[in-house]
Design brief:
Largest sheet: none
Number of helices: 14
Strand content: under 5%
Order of helices and strands: HHHHHHHHHHHHHH
Shape: globular
């Protein structure tokens, strides 16, 4: 399915659903954002369907852990729907857009323009695939350090530990995050993307590529990518060790896409044993989405008070 077909579907939904709705509410000035939101929604639907069709059978055929019920994974489905269908990102956009605009205007006022690989060579400007790979590697490098900070800073761990608290980790777990953790991560991603000059046309594909690997790496499957492949791309086996109960807050295997960062900075663990996932503490992480979000806020307050 190509971009043109997505654009046609987005155009039809915008014309017959969003535009009349905006017109009645007197919000026609938000039409461009509404169209982008519909496109994001359609891409999210496609991602979720592909993940379920491709990864869910792998969890059934090659499970890392045998489960009699998948009940505890249901809340992670809620996280995935809220995130991939654009509900959480849209809410964060409304909250963060004024700050993003102010930062962009300030940088341009001081003539601080983004740096990108295309400025090194006109050839990269004419060949988007090599520049795309550069952006992917660069963003993954900064995401590695963001992830390490999530484990090293107590106040950030108070949020991020929600992601690690799932003892039935599946491909749905990728989006299991506290909303504040998501907000910080999106700000981080946006700042890095702006700093290295990611073109708008490549932004969506960078997010899609990262999400695809992350969803697979969280899957309840027992395979890796072999002795060589395991060191080229983050596999389910490699990332499962990051979520293991024994790793905990200290952590290992922080890379999102490329294990090279863990190898260079000596946080890699390539053991092949299948370990249980979760957080070994006495915290209450809640049973549902809203309970988990509320308890995350309480952990942050407790962390601030104890600092």
């Amino acid at each position: 399915m190509g971009d043109d077909q997505f654009d046609q579907w987005a155009g039809w939904l915008f014309e017959h659903a969003a535009q009349p709705f905006l017109y009645k509410l007197g919000l026609i000035g938000w039409d461009e954002l509404a169209f982008d939101g519909i496109t994001f929604f359609l891409y999210g639907v496609a991602q979720i369907l592909l993940l379920y069709v491709l990864v869910r059978p792998l969890e059934a055929l090659l499970p890392a852990e045998e489960w009699h019920t998948r009940k505890d994974t249901h809340v992670d489905v809620v996280y995935t729907l809220l995130t991939r269908l654009g509900i959480v990102p849209l809410a964060l956009f409304f909250l963060l857009q004024p700050a993003a605009t102010l930062i962009d205007q300030s940088l341009r006022l001081h003539n601080l323009l983004p740096w990108g690989p295309e400025r090194l060579s006109p050839w990269l400007l004419a060949n988007p695939l090599p520049s795309f790979f550069f952006y992917l590697v660069a963003i993954d490098f900064f995401n590695y350090w963001r992830h390490r900070l999530q484990h090293r800073l107590n106040i950030w761990w108070a949020l991020h530990s929600l992601h690690h608290s799932q003892r039935m980790m599946s491909f749905w777990t990728d989006d299991r995050n506290h909303v504040l953790d998501d907000a910080i991560s999106w700000i981080w991603f946006a700042l890095v993307s702006a700093a290295i000059g990611v073109p708008p046309a490549q932004f969506v594909w960078l997010v899609a590529a990262s999400r695809a690997v992350e969803s697979l790496s969280h899957a309840n499957v027992r395979f890796g990518f072999g002795s060589v492949g395991e060191r080229l791309l983050v596999s389910p086996k490699f990332h499962r060790l990051h979520h293991s109960v024994t790793a905990g807050k200290r952590g290992c295997n922080f890379a999102t896409l490329f294990p090279i960062w863990d190898m260079v900075f000596r946080t890699a663990d390539f053991r092949s044993s299948v370990t249980a996932t979760g957080v070994a503490d006495d915290q209450d992480y809640g049973d549902g989405y809203f309970a988990q979000q509320w308890l995350g806020f309480k952990r942050v307050l407790a962390s601030v008070k104890s600092a």
